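Q: Could you fold this chain for me?
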Amino acid sequence: MSMLSLSASPILLPIIALVLWTLIMQGWMLLARIPAMTSLKIDISEAERTADLAAKLPKQVMWKADNYNHLMEQPTIFYAAALALALAGLGTDLNVILAWVYVGSRVVHSIVHSTTNNVPIRFGLFVIGTLTLLVMAVNGAVALMG
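A: Sure. Below is the predicted structure, expressed as structure tokens.
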């Protein structure tokens, strides 16, 4: 596959969208955390470990940090799967739809986690994303083995 066809792979856009969303969540985390630390007079040196901050900051502030951490976990598998599909020429059609469903589930998960932290809704969104990612991976495996 030539680099030209890789650069045109439609599945690259959901990858970039999730990267941008992760950076938005990082910004939201900082916009919540820094004022809270300032108002509680928490010195930056006390932020060496997230667990230390978690004991001092309101849970609504920590939800944003927790979600940012979640965006560093399972989405790494999404990035690998989507890039593998793009490299294999499989980053079109159903796989693009699945990639967008995955990104959408992560965005909605972030919003729920960072605002109400409704665990049953978060879990449902996590399951949707996980199943979507599983189908993407199986699609890739079947196409590459077939």
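A (continued): The chain has a mean pLDDT of 93.
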